[in-house]
Write a structure and sequence with these properties.
Helix content: 25-40%
CATH topology of the largest domain: D-Maltodextrin-Binding Protein, domain 2
CATH architecture of the largest domain: 3-Layer(aba) Sandwich
Shape: globular
Strand content: 15-25%
Distance between the termini: 31 Å
CATH class of the largest domain: Alpha Beta
Largest sheet: 7 strands, mixed
């Protein structure tokens, strides 16, 4: 099979005539359950797709995680890592006419850490935030409770987008979530929940990052986001011209579109935590590291991933995607498929085959629940279940809603959970592996494994606080080694967004982390 290539800027085509510059784009989204378009709250890639086109960040980033001036024209991180000072761009306004200035920055960041907001993503991305000092009308000093080496990268992520203080105060947090106001190239127009969302060109926009193709307002007059969760319906809509670009296009359709001159295809290999499984070490069979190791060694990842994705997606071996800054290649030596070793580990741990093939120990079956939301690849769960059944595991797979998953996680009733996390910085590992982020009632965090290792916590803090890039990479290599040694994380495959679009348009580009698509340069 001819492989598809990753592109950070989509295939270029001849410019359209001037009369065609007021064009309209329709995006086919693979989910219809959006709840908020407030960047301070969401941790959903579906909602972030809209957010990246409505909002700007203090520090801009291209698809390869390189940092550029954004709403801040320059920045300086203190040598002790406890603060970052930014000089802000003048002449910028929010969509509602509110001036962007130091007060808007302070308002945005202070509101993220307010428990009443209920931030799910930004509160972690922002790190150990302490306060924002307004140095002048267009200068701020952001301070941290402990050294924060990710200060600049964190300010480039979509979760830390700048919001209009006027709009938030007028609408309230709930109202703002349904009618967001940013400084980006497109402004919110309307939202028909579960059906579509409409944005319009922001005519005053004149502060695009330097790596974009042009300056000034976008040539795109309107962007419509149609929510089409069924993949076959989404593909049919693309073929009929009802949408211009399709999110998460099935692999077989990607192959077909690649050979059709009316279409173009591109794959975004996302940075951050790749798709994998977290094993809950707090109760059940996974309290024993030998069982966890057997679970990992018993899954034939290369074959499983190839079967599911026809060679289009690559297996992964550690807690960071290979494209993520700070990736440690040493993870690639861990846990090759070895069912004989896995079986031996289970024997050593006292789990013996029962009459129906399921292993037992002291009257207990080697059983665990694997609860997976529909959009988190239940077909992967079926394949994992089949591999592990050969070893004597009884993996009970159930497809659930996100609300049910939250209920299970908060009450600590989960055993195996799928997780992926889009991020442009290795500091995201705190989100899943710091003991500070063990979920409990009223505290919906993402350390689903319940790993509570003081040495790992210390390593995470040291890496997060390192300002020197080389030292930071060394410390994050140690973090990745500790995570793999603990055998709480089962790496599966790269997160990819398989995009297909109609060839008459060009200029689509990936945002930071290579998942969400920006429409500003389309022509």
């Amino acid at each position: 099979m001819r492989r598809l290539l990753l592109a950070t800027v989509f295939v270029a085509a001849a410019a359209l005539p001037a009369a065609a510059q007021n064009l309209a784009i329709t995006w086919g989204e693979d989910d219809n359950s959006a709840r908020t378009f407030d960047p301070r709250v969401t941790q959903s890639r579906h909602e972030t797709q809209v957010i990246y086109n409505i909002f700007d960040q203090l520090i801009a980033s291209d698809a390869d995680s390189k940092l550029h001036p954004g709403l801040a024209t320059s920045w300086q991180v203190a040598p002790d890592g406890l603060s970052i000072t930014l000089k802000l761009r003048e002449g910028v306004t929010f969509h509602d006419g509110t001036p962007f200035n130091a007060e808007a920055v302070a308002f945005t960041l202070d509101s993220i850490i307010d428990p009443k907001l209920g931030s799910q993503g930004a509160v972690d991305v922002l790190g150990p935030y302490k306060a924002t000092e307004i140095v002048g009308p267009y200068e701020v000093k952001i301070t941290y409770k402990r050294p924060w080496g990710a200060a600049a990268p964190s300010l480039s992520q979509g979760e830390i987008s700048m919001v209009s203080p006027t709009a938030v105060k007028k609408l309230g947090d709930a109202g703002f979530a349904a009618a967001p106001v940013g400084t980006g190239p497109f402004k919110f127009a309307s939202w028909d929940r579960g059906q579509k969302l409409l944005t319009e060109r922001f005519e005053a926009y004149n502060w695009a990052p330097e790596f974009m193709k042009h300056q000034g307002p976008s040539k795109v007059a309107r962007v419509t986001y149609r929510f089409i969760p069924d993949a076959s319906t989404r593909v049919a809509a693309l073929e009929r011209g009802e949408i211009d670009i399709s999110d998460l296009t099935p692999v077989l359709d990607m192959q077909r579109f690649q050979a059709d001159p009316k279409f173009r295809t591109v794959i975004g290999e996302s940075t951050g935590l790749p798709t994998g499984l977290l094993l809950n070490t707090d109760h059940g069979i996974f309290t024993d590291i030998k069982v966890r190791l057997a679970f990992i060694l018993g899954i034939d990842r290369p074959r499983l991933v190839d079967d599911l994705f026809f060679g289009l997606v690559k297996p992964v071996y550690g807690p960071l995607a290979k494209a993520t800054p700070g990736y440690w290649p040493g993870v690639e030596k861990y846990y090759p498929f070895d069912p004989k070793k896995a079986a031996a580990l289970l024997d050593e741990a006292g789990w013996k085959p029962g009459p129906d093939g399921v292993r037992v120990k002291d009257g207990q079956r080697l059983a665990a629940s694997f609860d997976v939301p529909q959009v988190m690849e239940p077909e992967m769960g079926v394949a994992v279940q089949a591999d592990l059944k050969k070893l004597g595991f009884d993996i009970k797979l159930e497809v659930i809603t996100f609300a049910k998953r939250e209920e299970l996680v908060m009450s600590n009733q989960n055993s195996v959970q799928v997780l992926r996390w889009i991020s442009g910085d290795p500091s995201c590992l705190e989100v899943m592996f710091s003991s500070r982020n063990i979920p409990h009632p009223g505290y919906g965090k993402f350390n689903y494994s319940h790993i509570n290792d003081p040495a790992l916590d210390q390593a995470l803090d040291a890496a997060a606080g390192a300002a020197d890039p080389a030292k930071r990479d060394t410390l994050y290599a140690d973090v990745q080694k500790r995570i793999m040694d603990a055998a709480v994380w089962v790496p599966m495959h790269d997160q990819v967004n398989t995009i297909a679009y109609r060839a008459e348009h060009s200029g689509y580009g990936f945002a930071r982390t290579r998942w969400n698509v920006k429409f500003y340069d389309v022509e």
